[in-house]
Amino acid sequence: MLAASSYDLGMNRPHYASVAAIGLSVAVSVGDLWFAMPLHLPAAVDPWLHPLGVLARLAPVVAGALIVLRRASNRVGWTLMVCGTLVIGLQLCRMAAVAAVELLPSSPDLVLSAAHALAAVPQAFFGLVYAWPAAIVLLFPDGRFSGSSDRWCFWGILGASVSLGVAGIAGAPVTPAPYEGRPNVFHVSWFEPFGDVIFAAGWLVLWGLLAANVVIVARRLRRATGERRLQLLWLTVAAVLPPVSLIGCVLALTGSLDMRYVDVAVSAAQLLVVAAVIVAVTKHGLYGIERLINRTLVYVSLTLLVAVVFLAVTIGSGLLVGAGSSWGTALATAAAAVIFFQARTAAQKFIDRRFASRKFAAMNALREYTGRLHCGDAELGDIVPLLGRILGDATLRGYFPCEAGWRTIDDQPAVLDPGAGRAHSTVRFAGSQVAVIEHSVALSYTPELVRSVLGEAAGTLAMARLHLQVKHQLEEVKASRERIVQAGYLERRRLERDLHDGAQQRLVALGISLRRLQHSLPSGASVIAPALDTAVQQVGEAIGDLRAIAAGIRPTRLDDGLRAALDDLTQNSPIPVEVNVPDSRIPSELEAAAYFIVCEAVTNAVKHAAPSRVIVRGALDGATLRMSVADDGRGGAVADAKGGGLSGMADRARAHGGTLVVRSQPGTGTTVEVVLPCG
């Protein structure tokens, strides 16, 4: 934030001062355009150059006044407004002089001569155009010089500018444009021999101090961090233009450069300083400077490269096919176009490596990780820690939107609530939000780095989000399957209990009643005894069928444990079955699953493998039940794609979160191994 302090002069009436400065500046600018522009601009000069200069002189006054109106205690706003008003005052001298000459032509000769000389004051004191941008840069952000070097640099620039003005006014015997060739009433004859020396020394000192101003600001920039660094970066860019345009001005005076380019550069420098101050004070668009500098360097280097290639091909083709040939121009244009498109990526990498080394290293690290990820040498879960390392923020966190809310990369629930010193950056991929990265607020001051890194990582973060979503969907399917299995198991128990306590008991009671009826018959009724025997036998067979059905749904012996149920199973087997299963108890639904898997495996062996014996083994390994059914039959068992046999056993094992493996080589028997988690 800019420091707020009282500004002693005029601070009690900032509104009136701002309005007066704007009103004076607008009036002088309009008068300058009306009087001066038609008079002193030659026909060969582009008519838009003078309005551009007027706009550049008017911009600091308006910007400074607006800043003062918004923040009356802002010293930079006051400095901008006062310096801009002084520059406008130079234009007021021109406008007053032109008005006196054009509107009062019958004035005394002394008045007209003074007006002729006064009209040249803005040109003589042109160095002040370079002084106020330097003052703004040195006084930013609190309106005070940060050290003695800043103070000496500013007063040196101001002194050199005034010296140039005095040398231009007092050293010339005749007036320059717009009333050139008239006697200069301000001429000092004894000063004339020193005028050229002072003029040359003044320009040299002014350029050296402007260059020193850039060095001072760059040194402050290296020490600055966070938001202050971005503010100074804008001003550093603005501070570079004045010494560059001053060199152009010297070249124009020597005839080596068109003065129009210098006018444009000077006006652009003033406008850029004003824009930099507005951005730095309001902080609107503050974070775009790094990207702007990067793109400027890339395209300037490309422009120079294309120009060199075009010139070289043009000269070479001219030597080969002759000067003036259209083929040479066409070939040069084609070569320049090819170079531009082919060299853009290389230029971007070169600029990033030289001027954005942190971004360059971060992008390389991300691309290396992506390559390893595609090769299967890295994990998706590494992306968020990697972002923290390459961005230099060990506290960086990634949050992914899921149906169950926000989740972290390790699938932990999270709440988006940044605390003090934290900030959020949204990551989008293909138009959709895929993640939110929480990081230190200090990274907000390097937005180009964060934007580039998160843009490069967007695809990987989208994959991580998709991985979490699929994981949750699979977990939901698993939980749903377990609920279905549990419901089926409870339903089988209910059916088994209903059969045992309902139909079976009623059949038993019916058989007993029939037998009592048979015993109570008189001796003469013995003829119906065989029929009653048959009825009792059929009731017994029905009871046996119900018991078999109930055992298929859920054996009653499972109430005594898996070992007891398997022992009953082997008693009716046509081949020897060895059972080696511990007596330990596990959840009843898992006992039922293990029983039916073993039952199916033994039935398949007896039915299809023709073994001499079957061995059933089981072990409880911590929270895991391991069962195996091995036979010495013909082998070669193949799973049925329709879901029966081996496939049905595998489905039953997976329904409880377990696995089933079948080893069956022809001639070596078959082994079915099942693992069921019990935790």
From TrEMBL:
Pfam families: HATPase_c, HisKA_3
Gene3D superfamilies, alphabetized: 1.20.5.1930, Histidine kinase-like ATPase, C-terminal domain (3.30.565.10)
Residue intervals passing through the bilayer: 16-36, 48-69, 76-97, 117-140, 152-174, 194-218, 230-253, 265-286, 298-321, 327-347
Keyword flag Kinase: yes
Catalyzed reactions per annotation: ATP + protein L-histidine = ADP + protein N-phospho-L-histidine
GO molecular function, one term: ATP binding
Highest taxon of source: Bacteria
Record-listed E.C. numbers: 2.7.13.3
Keyword presence, Oxidoreductase: no
Entry keywords, A to Z: ATP-binding, Kinase, Membrane, Nucleotide-binding, Phosphoprotein, Transferase, Transmembrane, Transmembrane helix, Two-component regulatory system
Cellular component, GO annotation: membrane
Top EC category: transferase
Domain Histidine kinase/HSP90-like ATPase residue range list: 589-679
InterPro entries: HATPase_C_sf, HATPase_dom, Sensor_HK_TwoCompSys, Sig_transdc_His_kin_sub3_dim/P
PANTHER family (alphabetical): NITRATE/NITRITE SENSOR PROTEIN NARX-RELATED (PTHR24421), NITRATE_NITRITE SENSOR PROTEIN NARQ (PTHR24421:SF10)
Protein name per Swiss-Prot or TrEMBL: histidine kinase
